[in-house]
Batch of 4 targets.
Target 1
Amino acid sequence: MTKRTRRNHSPVYKAQVALAAVKGEKTLAELAQHFDVHPNQITSWRSQLLEGAAGVFGYEGRAEPAGAVIDVKTLHALPVTRQARELGISRGSVYYLPRPVPATDLTIMRRQGELHMNYPFAGSRILRARTSLARYLTPLPESYTTIRDTTRP
């Protein structure tokens, strides 16, 4: 089977296909067979047409230029969802409060970094055999206090 060469469709052709999809008179499979285009491509062109259609009639919801000044007082009067959209940020990031990394995690990360610098050729099994990260995190039991532990830092 020979490989089909890449086809470049004109914007007029894409608009015809997208309009036929918007009309809904035929199914995607029928349109794909009629226009000899994959159904996913028809869906993509249809969504692009619907997104850009508002611009034809002077859609006012488009993003402001990068240098535009945002009025903070009117922005605070809006709901959080609208504020996030106006600022161009994700709504989920508005509610996110960063938490500090626990000291135990920092100790583990620092030790892992040391091991990778000292043994760059070592994989996870060799590194695990070289050291146990648990000894840096938990204190020794009472029974070990009488014996001097030379392996602890």
Target 2
Amino acid sequence: ADSTTYTSNRGKPTYNNISYSLNYTYIIRPGNTLAIMSDVRSVKNDRDIYYMEKSDNSYMLERNQTGTNDFLIYSGQVDYKHPFKDKYTFSTGVKVSVIDTDIDENLKEKNQSVWVENPIYTSRYSYDEQLVAGYVNLAMNGRKMEGRIGLRAEYDISESDEMPKNKEFELFPSGFLRYKLGSDFSFSLSYSRRINRPPFRSKLPYNYFISSYSINVGNPNLKSSISNSFVFDVGYKSNFLSFGYDDIKNTIYLVSQYDKDSGISYASNRNVRNGKIFNISLTLPFKITKWWSSFNNLVYRHKQYDDARYSLRSRNNMFMMRSGNSFTLPAGVTFEVNAAYMSSPMAGPMVKEKGGFMVDMGMSKDFFKNKLSVTITMDDVTGFMNKYETETSYNNFIKNTREFSNSRKLSLSLTYRFKSGKEVKAKTNQLSGSQESRRISE
């Protein structure tokens, strides 16, 4: 290398989140209900980040990036449930949501003690989306058989300053059937068609500066991802063997493209056209002795992704074992050990993680007639997550990443239970806009 460049940054991010929700349920008769939910949520994310780059050949550059992301979500939902003939339940509902988004990014560079705005990395955009959805569902719960069949329809309209109005209409059928063979055996089969919409800001053509050699850009052509999922389960008492298959179109994934001339890596969310995932899972709980119980899970997963645009044809086989063990020791001491082994899995269509072995441990005991609980835990005893390594490979582009963190932690917690009074049941409001809220933080 001709020289080495060092980059440091410090930031002042602020997050303001205000939400209001209204829930009302009218009980017509037992099991027959009408529920109304409405939400308003305002999220404002501000940041002020200072960057400094310098090299061993006296090169130095200072940058200051400021940005404001405003999200305003209105949503409302009505659900109706009606049981009939003892074992059947019919339900239907409708939902409406409106999202307003404003993105403001600004980058200034220091030139001879004067801060000058860089127009390439300065952008101001607005994005609006309206979603109308409705569903019908019929469920049956019999002595030996239970099932459910449903259909959901969604109509989505989105537009922004730099993107023409886009309209999408999709249908999402689903079904589930379980048959009980005696008191111990059961078989179940399920199918669902699902959608994963992209984060709001990903569809805007912004430029987000990370360093002189790494820049994130938006993608106005980003599409929603559609998956068809099938699951078949066999159960015996508390033991389960599960087979799953997912066929995915337009998987949303962060793709980096390297410009050889400038040496800059541009990253943006893109659609990977074809993806398939096959899973086998075995769950085995054991009561080994009176004082030792164990919960074990074995997983095999095969992933494959194909997209000729990125010369992508990736295949990955992953095996994982997890075991949770609880020991009841003398003097009322409880000791727990959770262990997991994972071979090298794919974190996405183009990224492979390094596998390894991880152990968590903990011990607890109660004092003063169970009023005081003392718990000591040790996370990641083996230090597996201290060093997170990945390899990104596609289209003749290879990137190896190492991230270091303090995953090995020793914790002590004390819990004291005062004299109990009248029990108060906590109520948690359901939110009609929970799906839209997740697309803010993605």
Target 3
Amino acid sequence: MSTLLLPIDGSPCSYEAVNYIKAISAIEEDPKSVVVLHVQDNRPLTIPVDIDHQKPRELRDLPADDPAHALLNPVEQSLKESGCLVHSYEAYGSPVHEILAVAQERGCDRIVMGTSGLNRTEQLLLGSVAYRVLHRARVPVTLVRKAASRLSQSNNDYRLLVPIDGSKHSLKALDYVLRHSARDGETLITLLYVQQPVGQLPGHFASYRNELEELFANEARDVFNEAHQTLQGWNANVQERVEIGNPASSIIKTAQAIEASEIVMGTHGRTALVHAVLGSVAYHVVHLADRPVTLVR
């Protein structure tokens, strides 16, 4: 059983994350345990100011007239109707700190957060809560866009786009897919390899174009072969696709073309390189995607 952490703030986009969890619960093999968390920025007078992390209060311990009760209870009931095991909590303090602390304390396998898309509010969000959670989380993080969960539920099959480049990080994303997706053929996986364009070669280097294109083609084949070894024995529909161009733009374009339900991609994890990764390919995909994006450490 996998355990998901679902931060809820009452916004429409956070409810899209609820719909996303309900959608994947109907498709993925393993049952879902969901930890629903509402974080209050303001600290009640009953909680000392020198306490950084107070144990979250369970929904059953909240007064019926508590605003958090009215927020958490419908979400918990909705998820339970979808077959999820649900525990709901209210916490006080910094949203980022509390999300990460609860994820660790409750042994969560993934954090699922709703975001509103590429607008000024989203830019501020990714500069604060969501971006810092992405940067600091030790588990995969899924960002769900507005209306993306409805796209997921509209397909007869669940379509995953997994960009791969032969690195151990992209293979971790494949391993994540292997462990969490359905094995009965309902999941369609598209492996995407993005090749840099050869471009215009100066002078006598132009004669090497064919050799370079062949080199890139062989490299793509090696990457696909390694990916298929990871997926060996898995009864799923796996397709290959090669695009030439900018990696982030190619990922977005491909996701739209194949009507992907979700994008799953690896990142370099908790190192200095995460700034370069989230600042380029993954960060741009997160900003531009109009469907759920899961980043795997």
Target 4
Amino acid sequence: MSQFQDWLLEGGRMKTKEVAVIWRKLAPSFQGLGLVIKGRFVFISPVGDFVRGVYFEEAFDSTAFYLRVLFLPLFVPQECISFIHGERIGDNLLWKIENPDLIDNLRAVIQTQALPFLESVSTLAGVIACVEKDVERGWPRYNSHHMEELAYLCIKNGDHSEALKWLRHLQRDLENETTPWIIDQRNRTRLIETKLLESPEAALNQFEDWKKQTIITLGLEKYAGAN
């Protein structure tokens, strides 16, 4: 085991500073992509309507971690970097600190799996296609976050009738829910429906307000850029 790996293993569970050390070894291979690191999250900067990147996810084994590729729409209120979209990538067994080929393995899987996914969701059309697949995957069961996002994406795309269809579908399904976060979600969709019926610009302005707040909540202010 190298001195680098010995240092990473000191003190038990891998911490964010160890993630930073790993990323410093990887970063030279990905120059020019605008990748920056914040905690366990390596993402493309600047961020606009979406944040896209890879996340070094904690594992039960204190000497291991998972690598996850993901994106999040920032114009939907978010309290943290969640794993609503994306997936774990690579062979989990590779992400053991004592693996002598750790850096090479990570570099390869980022190049062959993470970057193609991140490129596929680099446009509004690509994001819509991805979220549609998420909604359709378990239909008629679905994740309410996915449907909420799909409705908002339709508004962003100018497809207002489709947006209203998804908003009303979701509202019907959530009508009798009493969980606080679901009530918040239902109220958001009602607000957006009201604003959309008022004017598309009113709905888009609400998205901008939510995006500004989400960027602050996630601590991404200095990475914020154009849409």
